[in-house]
User: What shape does this take?
Amino acid sequence: SLLQESLLSHGEVALFCRRLMNEILRPYIAALTTVPMGTRTTTEALAELLQGQVSGLDLTLLRALLSDADLVKFAQARLGVDDAHAMAQRVRQLILATAPTPGKEPA
Assistant: This one.
């Protein structure tokens, strides 16, 4: 898993955040919904997600995650290692809240 890689211990927080968004969160949301997250800005993606209903999807949490990642990516905001771990935990929380249960169709 991404947390088991040595990115954070080597101070690669920005790279960790980019990979967390680009390899885990955005593809997961794209698979869960009809929104092509890889080709949408945060604003565009959230606008499209607001039009649909996904059971358990916390749009406030998603907006916060994507906005924080945008600050790291585009404004070169600096996150600490603890902040990056917290971000990964929030991504995990969002995924667990929306993961389809076996035998049940996703919303």
The longest helix spans residues 13-32. The chain has a mean pLDDT of 90. The chain is about 60% helix and 0% strand. The helical segments are 13-32, 42-51, 59-74, 81-98.
